[in-house]
Structure formats: C-alpha cells, structure tokens
Specification:
single chain; alpha/beta; Rossmann fold; six-stranded parallel beta sheet; globular
Length: 182
C-alpha cells in the first residue's frame, strides 16, 4: 500500500439505505466522497446534507464532462472504492462497461488500476421496502433485469457486491484492515 492511501466512497441518486450508508461513512476517517449529480439532489431532497457534512470528508461532485477526479486513482490515492448506495441505473452501466458519469468512471478506473470495489446494490431482492423523502416507507419491486445486472456484476474481478448494511460494514472494515497491513 502506498503511504496515506484513502478510501473512495461514491454515492448515487438512491434514497434506499442512504441514511444508513451515510452513518457508516461517518464512522470512517481518510475518506474522499464522490457524489453523482443525482446524489447531490437526493441528499438535499432527503434533508441529509448535515449527515454528509458531519465528518468533514473531502467531497467531489459530478461537475465535469470528463470526470476529472478519477485521476486520483492513477496517482494511487485509494486502497478501496465503495459505491453505496448504488442505483439500478448505475449497476446496469457498470455491468455493461459504461463509464459515462463520475461514479461509473470511478468504478472503471478502480478496476483498471486494480483497486478493489465494494458495491451496495439497492435492488437485490424481488420485493423491498425503501425510504422515500420525508420518512415515508414504500414497497419496491425490482425488475428481473435489475436482478440480472447485479448477478452479472458479482462475477467481475475485484468487485464485492453486498446487500445488507452489516455486510457493507464488514467488507469496508476488512478492506481497511488489509490496507493497513500492506
């Protein structure tokens, strides 16, 4: 491991377990946060800006056509990429090799620079309950294609797809410990 490597954490535009993802994020140090354009909107819509700002992490937003912040992967700044929560749109793009946004570019460049990725996929079961804005809980029924894309992504090298907050927490802890030992 290069000295002073950090954890990169990307957030997409999903409210599903966003509150819980931010809670985990705020237990960590040495993290750079990357927000998709939709994530920036959703964080505001859900009223979660104080949660995002609580730990004073560096925050990068999707404001450039070429996803300029991905160059940090070329510089060896990160030991792990976390994408949590990840929308079905982001999962589909990653599963088929698209890198047309900040988050999908981060995933592609992490893979190309051999940085492992942990992905918390939102649509992992045929029926889910999800938090909507203003603390409403809604039933969500992922489509077969959403579930198929998650299965496809699980086959990718250096990619760990998790479907619970506990497995996300455990995977991050394991990767951070490995990074310290390297």
């Amino acid at each position: 491991m290069q000295e002073n490597q950090r954890l990169a954490w990307a957030i997409t535009g999903s409210g599903h377990y966003l509150r819980e993802s931010l809670a985990i994020l705020n237990t960590l140090d040495n993290v750079d946060v990357f927000l998709s354009r939709a994530a920036a909107e959703i964080i505001q819509q859900y009223g979660f800006q104080p949660l995002l700002s609580a730990n004073n992490h560096r925050v990068y937003q999707d404001k450039t056509a070429s996803s300029v912040p991905v160059e940090l992967f070329y510089q060896g700044k990160y030991h792990t990429l976390v994408i949590a929560p990840a929308t079905s749109n982001t999962i589909a793009k990653m599963a088929y090799g698209f890198s047309d946004s900040l988050v999908t570019n981060l995933y592609a460049q992490a893979g190309k620079t051999r940085v492992p990725s942990i992905v918390f996929a939102c649509d992992t079961a045929p029926e889910l309950e999800s938090e909507a804005p203003r603390d409403h809980i809604v039933k969500v029924y992922p489509r077969r294609i959403d579930l198929d894309n998650i299965a496809k992504l699980k086959t990718f090298e250096a990619t760990c797809v998790v479907d619970t907050m506990q497995s996300l927490r455990d995977s991050i802890q394991q990767h951070c410990q490995q990074a310290l030992l390297s």
